[in-house]
Amino acid sequence: MDQELASLHTIANRAIAFLVDYSFQVVGAIIILFAGVLLGNWVAVAVARLCEKRGVDVTLRHFLSSFAKIVVVAFAVIMALSKFGITIAPFIAAIGAAAFGATYALQGPLSNYGAGLAIILGRTFVVGDTITVAGVFGVVEEVTLAHTILLTEDGVKITVPNKHIVGEILQNSGEYRIVESSVGISYDADPAKAISVITQALSGFPQIKSGPAPQIGIDDFRDSSVAIGYRYWTPTRQYIETMHGVNLAVFKELGRAGISIPFPQRVVTINKDQILS
Known about the structure:
about 280 residues, alpha+beta, Helix Hairpins, SH3 type barrels, Alpha-Beta Plaits, 3 domains, 5-stranded antiparallel beta sheet, 3-stranded antiparallel beta sheet, 7 helices, about 50% helix
């Protein structure tokens, strides 16, 4: 019992000595960390506003503001550690050794971060662009170091790891996406008149981009019809809606103009002599 009391007394004395010796250092470290977080938030907001005034896109703006905050907070942590007489050099060496050892186990995530940094700094695309990559397409909603989020017209969010974007064939069509359709008309019909009718039908859709202008012409000569192809640019967020509306308008306008859309036909010849034999 006396030995336990002596141990508790020793621990209490050490705790009191620690508080007496390091109380000011602990309070100072807490104040430095608190001030560092506040200053980091203020610097992040200031950088974001400056980038916004300079017309920097939202993706790069978020990256720069976040990076500035991390730098300020990191300096605050270093200053707080120095209050206890702790140098940062051993920690940097330990972190470097741990990072080297974890590289092999984290090749996937690290490659995503490297690719994300290349996307943000290289500005291959920005928020609001329409991209097609890795078999999917959509409007870029957010770009982070790890992944890129695409939003489709149906409201579906597609998360693409950045390593599947960098180094791949990527199509960037800005805010628009091209629609390619065709309709078959009879060989007896006047293709020039059909082209004029389709041009008139497309002009009734203000969301269709005027530059470049829609392209309309003979696309193919099929067995039972002449294919009139038409291509136009429409906002990605209205892609399906516009395509369905245009196809219906083309169908109605061709009917009003008396231009028939033939169905597939086959001519079957029966040889009576072969049947009788």
